[in-house]
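Our collaborator T.R. sent over the components below with a one-line note: 'Predict the complex.' Nothing else. No constraints on interfaces, no templates requested, no preferences about which chain binds where. So this is a plain run: every listed entity goes in together, and whatever single assembly comes back becomes the starting point for the next discussion.
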Amino acid sequence: MAKDKLMLWGICLLAALTAVPLLAILGEVLLRGYHQLSWAFFTEPTPTAYKAMKAIEAGEPIPGGIANGIVGTMIMLGMAVIVAVPLGILCGAFLAENSKNRFAQFVSYLTDLLQGTPSVIIGIITYIWVVVPMKGYSAIAGSVALCIMMVPLIVRSTEETLKILPASLKEAGLALGGNKARVMMRVQLPAAFGGIFTGILLAVSRVIGETAPLMFTALGCSLIRFSVDKPISAVPLLIWEFFNDPNLQELIWGASLFLLLFVLALNLTAKYLAKRWNQ
Amino acid sequence: MESVTPILEFKKTCVSYTKQTMAVKYVSAAIERNTITAIMGPSGCGKSTLLRAVNLMHSLYQNIRVDGEILLNGENILSMEPIDVRRRVGMVFQRPAPFPTMSIYDNVLSGFSLNGIKLSKAEKDTTVERCLKSVALWDEVKDVLNKKGTFLSGGQQQRLCIARALAMKPDVLLMDEPTSALDPIATKHIEELLLDLQKEVTILIVTHNMGQAKRISSKSMFMYLGELVEYGDTETMFTNPIDERTKAYLTGKMG
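Returned assembly:
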């Protein structure tokens, strides 16, 4: 009995230990960053180093915010999602339906490799493929890099979700005379929607904090910009810029807090949806 | 000899999952129009495999071979397009499988939507009402047609699946142990329903419930180890089986 209790306490302690890093990170960022969050922080672009320096000298809070990064992140994510979602779902459906096909197995293997490719390499490749031919950094290039990173995640979640649907669902559809494409579109994919949507959210939260690939592609910009063919900012890029500029270092924490909370919110939404869908 | 073509006829039908073993061996039998024919036998005897050959379900899986002939109104199914066959041969599965994302209304019409057939609103309404009435589900669900099919009880779900199959006006309805996942009362409802439905459609039902075969079928097949051991009038088979194996199965000595 005493042994059982000891074991139980030991396990609880170890479990608690794994939660410590996350709580510590959240606590640190929250403590350092909460006082920066204001309306202006989300609506104004990054201040110039000169303005920031003046404010620091005058003992005032640094003006401006990270709106340029938020807008850039949203634009690039949006474009990446528009391409990655249909591509990933179609590929996932193909893999789930042809798991014994040699070509499908090969594609599946490549998907795994792509998923494991370091993001910095995806960044430099996108630079060669998109930035160089377009003769400039742009939101398009950034979204291409993010898209390449998202596709394998969506493929995998679509494939896994379709595979765990009961076979009777597909057979019932085909038994009514439907062809495979219609049964996929009208029966299987709708039934798998919860799992696929969860996968998309996780893919978004996975790439939203990517910095390295954007350094090679989007570059960054201190203006709020809506054009897709010019350099654009992103929240993780801003964090890196703030770190490199002594006058802007105060802003690191507000930007970090925003990014962290956004990712947490996406993850919680994904978890909640997955749970609801499983019931 | 009758000169009428049987609605469905097996001619030396064989199904094999691997090269070495046959799951169904040289089955020959003619199914009469507007009857209920039960396929009985112990687990693994090939009864479901034979049934699934009729709507070409086996063509979905690479390694399964179907040989011989299966004639639907005199035409060999095995050389027809699966989609054409499946529109004429409906199927009801062991576990009720209404489409979870569709409403009751859309479930009944799913055969049309999956075939890309467009119906007018009036046609849809009459089809839904006709099919749900013929499975005695209309009164229970007429006010909740927009709810999901999965919200119904197991027995109701199975009747919805039958309605869905009937909507396509099939010649033959295949049923793979349709009541084995249901409670006795729901089973009784389905059995009564099938007796009614045989006026519209020829029913081929796999069952390992001998009582059920006796209650509803006019003809019975007994299969054992892939062979069709005996095929004839249900009453004769139950009172006076010819083959020793049938007798052993029916008296519970083998199962």
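Summary for T.R.: The domain at 8-250 of chain B is CATH 3.40.50.300 (Rossmann fold).
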